[in-house]
Every structure is written in structure tokens, then in C-alpha cells.
Write a structure and sequence with these properties.
single chain; 182 residues; 5 helices; mainly alpha; Ferritin
Amino acid sequence: MAHRIEALIEVFQSLFDDEPKPSLHVGEVMACWTYLAVLEEAVALEQLGINTTEDPELKKVLQKSMDGANSQAIRLKDFLQKEGVPFPPAPESKPLSDPNAIPLGAKMTDSEIANSVSVKLASSVAMCATGAVQSIRNDVGLMLLEFQTEAMRYSVILKSLMKKRNWLKIPPYYFPPGKPQN
């Protein structure tokens, strides 16, 4: 499925590469600037998670998600720099640390880490969708669509691990009155 979306993005890009690009409008700037801030906060959160967890599978998922967020941040910074847009303030990079050196009361659980990253990914997907549909410039919309697709990929990987470990928070099931019971 991902290859189909990537192919579709390439087709759309080829259709619009030759048109002269107008300046970004304030909504496009805001969407890109805010998304860059969210990406950099996500990287900091994933670094904290990697430093906190001892679960090798969770570390692997966090590393993949962090690498993806870093890659998107680099691409977005390059785009914003070419457009003359200043960057939002970014949190400091977190050095590697020993999870056992963190006191238990100050340490996030693996479930808390996974759910926090899941919320960041969900907000990233929503932000990209909103920015893409509000964009006038096709290059901005397509870039945000690509970022959204990547965030959805990481969300699926994380959700699978969360289901496996019973970390996924599921609301109660709803059974409407009068529904036949199976």
C-alpha cells in the first residue's frame, strides 16, 4: 500500500514541478512551522523513551519513529530555509543514559512511553492532513501528505506492539439497546 501512495505522490509531483511557485501563504507557513516544532518535540520524547525503557522491542519501535521524525525534520528545515521561514525553537538533544539509573518514581512505564508516542503520532497525522488540505501550493500539500503517510506507518507498527503488550487504551464497547446478541 505504501508503494502505491509513494507512486501516486511522484505522479502528482511530476504534474506540478514546472509551474511557478507563489510565496507560501500564512496557513502553509503555520502548518509547516508547527509541524516542525511537533517533530522536534517527538524526537525528544522518543529519546527519553529510549533512555527509560528496557524493552528491546519498544526501543526498536522508538528508534524507527525517531529516525523517521529526524528525517522529516531535515526535509522540512531544508524546505523552510529555501522559503525564508525561520525555525521554531527546538529542545536539546538528550544524551544516552542507563534506564536503571532513573529512580522508579521518576521513570515512565513502558505503557506510558508507548501511549505518549502514540498520541504524538496521532496528532502528527491530523496536523499533516489539515495542512495538506489547506495548502494552495501543491508541493506543500504533497510534502505533508508524504509526512502523514510515514507517520501512519509508524503508528501501525507501534499499535501492533501496544496490542501485543496490552498497553493499548481501548474505550468500552458500545452495544446499542435492542441489538441482537450473537
